[in-house]
Amino acid sequence: MSASSPDADLQPARPGVTWMPYVVAAALLVALFLVFFVAPRERTMGEVQRIFYFHVASAFAALIGWVGCAVASLAYLFLSARQGMEVIAKITDRLAHALGEIGVLFGTIVLITGPLWAKPVWKTYWTWEPRLVLMMLTQFLFIGYLVLRAYAKKDVAGRKLAAGIAVIGGPAVYLIHVAVELWGGNHPQVVSGQGGGLQHPDMQLTFAVAIASVLLFAASLVHLRMRHHAFTDELEDAYLELSDREDARS
Amino acid sequence: MSTLRGALHILAKDLKVELRTREVFLTMTLFAILIVVIFAFAFQLDADATRAVAPGLLWVTVVFSGNLGVARVMDKERELGAFQGLLLAPAGPMAVFWGKAMGVLLFMLAMELLVVPLALIFVSISLPTSGILTLILTLFLGTLGFALVGTLFGAMLADVRMREVLLPVVVYPVVVPVLVAGVKLSAWAFDPAAEEPVGFLPLMAGFDLLYLALAPWVFGRTMVE
């Protein structure tokens, strides 16, 4: 930000994509309508199966968030050392932070909706099954990332440390997946296999719309959080500048 | 070559300090023995229960006391900004990482050399001769993987508030593949007549190779201004 005139500091906030929330709300409402009024009742699992549509969609969003956070952090660590790449590096850092937050948010949704489904179907809220373990451990890892990133604030060294955690965590997510798969389990293979009971075409339509709307929701949240982080950075800069000026005056 | 020489210098320094204070080794070993004893009390071990619990007990001991060891090794460098001094040394940051990682690995292996036989005696499980090599290989590969990730995160978090909480929160999820593979392979070492657990040894070796490459890179990118 330029500091030539006092008014330059009082620019109105840049408008974001203001139509986004309405589109997202509409898409989620359509998905909800399909889930509860169009998709047929599943034969063996009953009504509780309807939670699948948002459970699986949230799992997609969480995994995309986490993997994206690791990739963006890798890019940040690469670019932050390059001359003339400072602006892009800052953006990748904010992107990684926002994706990490959204990964943990949807991870929480997955870890709440999963047990709600599992209690009537598996007769237990929790079991030490590969996918569940993967989800929970990755959640821990990225909560650690967020805590570290929250401490860092404007401190570049702290931001790099958080990015390092994400870069190490990204491939670990895959290795944890391999480890717990070798271990064995009974989670439904909704996408790769024929589990989850999505045979009816209306179910498949609902599933597709639910995934699309949840991913759209996640994307809009990432967008909002990135704006938020950009404003927070600017605010910190402005605050430092202000205190500098006051020091100069006195 | 100077990286290796620098790393060996740092390792020699840590070993010299350790030989004088015995701080890390004693902390880790006493803690590890306590874990074994508490486990033996908590689980009322009979012969069947022992076979089920022993591999897990072994690895819980390794990663818990390993975490403690990493924290101690890094804590020493925190005082008076010693870490910054090391990183500024002409040997370069890679020498610091490798020196520290070798130190953590050696301390952990020394602890295991004492604690693992003790643990086997305490819970009175027999280790067949054909399983000894499997157990040693598993412990070495697992400890190497843990030392790499632990050293990296320990160094990264050395100056962070709440590092005592954050270190295990980020280390344990990452080393879970090592833990799972270690438990499966050790169970097989105790009972070689059982079916060989397929795929866990490559998983462990792959983990080690990946972090042998990735951990120093991340160290260089995050620790150096």
Quick summary of this structure?
Chain A has 250 residues and is mostly helical.
Instruction: Tell me what portion of residues of chain B adopts beta-strand conformation.
Output: under 5%
- Indicate the structural class of chain A: mainly alpha
Cα gyration radius of chain B (Å): 18 Å
Structural class of chain B: mainly alpha
Helix content bin of chain B: over 70%
- Which spans of chain A of ≥5 residues are poorly predicted at pLDDT below 50? 1-8
* Order of SSEs of chain B: HHHHHHHH
The helicity of chain A comes to over 70%
Into how many domains do the coordinates of chain B divide? 1
Span between termini of chain A? 24 Å
* Radius of gyration of chain A, whole Å: 22 Å
Task: Please describe the structure with a list of short key phrases separated by commas or semicolons.
heterodimer, A: 250 residues, disordered N terminus, B: 225 residues, mainly alpha
Polypeptide structure, described:
The complex is a heterodimer of chains A (250) and B (225). Chain A has 250 residues and is mainly alpha-helical. In chain A, 74% of the residues lie in helices and 0% in strands. In chain A, helix 2 (51-79) packs antiparallel against helix 3 (86-122) and helix 2 crosses helix 5 (156-183). Chain A starts with 19 loop residues before the first helix and ends with a helix. Chain B has 225 residues and is mostly helical. Chain B is 84% helix and 0% strand. In chain B, helix 1 (2-21) packs across helix 5 (93-122). The radius of gyration of chain B is 18 Å and the shape is globular. The relative contact order of chain B is 0.15.
